[in-house]
Structures are given as C-alpha cells and as structure tokens.
Amino acid sequence: MGDVGSLSLGATAAIVSLIIKKEILILVIGGVFVLEIASVIIQVVSFKLRKKRVFKMSPLHHHFELSGWPETKVVTRFWILGGLFSIIALSTLKIQ
Question: Smallest Cα–Cα separation from 92: which of 27, 2, 7, 45?
C-alpha cells in the first residue's frame, strides 16, 4: 500500500474514532505501531541515560530478526497481534 492508501485509511480511522468519541481506541487498534514507536523511544532513552541498549536493534521487528526469527515469522506474528488489538478495540465499543 502506498502513501495515499495508508494515509487515507489512517485519517479515516482517526476521524471515525473522533466521531464516536472513543479517541483512545485509535491507540489500541494501532497497537503494533504503538509497540514499534515505543521500542524506539525506550531504546533511545535507555542509551542516552544508561549507555546500554534494551533491544539488539530498534524498531522492535529488527530485534526479532537479529534474534534469529525469519522475516516471514515476524510479519505473521505482527499480523496476529494486529488482529488481536483490533478485536480488543471492537469488543470495547459496547462498554460505556
């Protein structure tokens, strides 16, 4: 998917979350992306403060690849995580 498709899907998801007044769900739906960003932030802060790395490499998917996982396995696991995050977000829509 190119920039036009991914940006329009992201904008649509954000607008829908604003319309239904469930803004926090955008973080749950995009949980894989939040994990990727959080791994970079953790790595940078840890290296600046302690001069030690938490992960072998960040973002998180590179850490798993350097740990010996094949790329297809990493992608499959992240798909599964994305699906789980989506199910969790959709299941909370009925909770008021």
Answer: 27
